[in-house]
# Entry
Amino acid sequence: METKLLYMEDMQSLSCTAKITDIKDGGILLDQTIFYPQGGGQPYDTGEITSDGSAFDVKEVRFDNGQVVHYGNTRKDNFKIGDSVECEVNQKRRDLHSRIHSAGHVIDMGLKECSIPWVPGKGYHFPDGPYVEYEGNLNDDGERLEKQLEDTCNHITQSDVRTKIVMTDLKNVSDLCHHVPTYLPKGRPVRVVLYGDFGVPCGGTHVEKISDIGKITIRKIKQKKSTIKVSYQINS
Ligand SMILES: [Zn+2]
# Structure
């Protein structure tokens, strides 16, 4: 049975109730979860799973064939299959990851505002050196563009606009999104996150308001063959 991914519908909630469906190889499986499993360039959540008599510290969360596995250490008495539990995500870690991840989308928005037609590729939204990659050509002075893009991004992050989730058919994604990646699954609804009128098909967690990201620094823009890497950081 696939785990129901509650963060797909509500990115701001940090707790939920759930039922334990399986326990294997030191990992706990639940019928539904609010924990984000690592993926899409974004690190996993940590936190705790508790019940009246038991407690488990969640140290790592991974996807495995549609199921989310919560790994960690038992702090107090073991759980058993069928137990009802409370899940609580570590807010500090989640907030930081959501801000770093969202800043990657603001860079997409900034490039569009600067009329730079690069095609988004993969992103790495870990605190130790985040970047976003594009296919295209850097027909410009990299340093000048770094400054222009940084100014544009920091103008965008002044906005109090709230992010919004829309579940839609694949055929409608191009109406909402500037770029539609080829890897989107067919036959199931696509989750589009809207930053104002800028939509991104994305399964990650995002800030509640664009201004929650804070200041973005563009550290470096460099090209290797046809891939352009934009390295950035946010204020911690
Ligand atoms: Zn995203």
In short: The longest helix spans residues 91-113.
